[in-house]
Amino acid sequence: MWQAEFSYGLKNHSGFNEAPKMGSGQSVVSSNIKTLVDDWKKDGAIGTSHPPTKKEAIRQAIAIALATAGKSRRDPGRPS
Question: What is the pLDDT of residues 13-57, one digit of tens each?
């Protein structure tokens, strides 16, 4: 099965891009969200996006982490 590769500019401690962890488990998704938000705190950017507030940065990080995991965010108020 084909799986999309995403490059969102995650950086490791030496400043080089680090690929997001692949997997669809909750711990992997949470780890990717934390890494993205930490990167936003350091340089104000998540990949090429520059969310102005922490709330918007978290929303962007969630979208990226779920896309990497091949999942979607379910809206509880919306019928499936």
Answer: 434 456 667 777 888 899 999 999 999 999 999 888 899 999 999
Chain-centre distance of CA 20, in angstroms?
8
Please, what is the end-to-end C-alpha distance for the chain in angstroms? 25
The b/e string for 3-28 (b: 16+ C-beta within 10 A; e otherwise) is eeeeebebeeeeeeeeebbeeeeeeb
- Three-state secondary-structure class, residue 11: strand
Residues with Cβ within 8 Å of 20's Cβ and at least 6 positions away in sequence, in order, are 6, 8, 10, 32, 35, 36, 64, 65, 68
The closest alpha carbon to 17, from 26, 27, 7, 25, belongs to 7
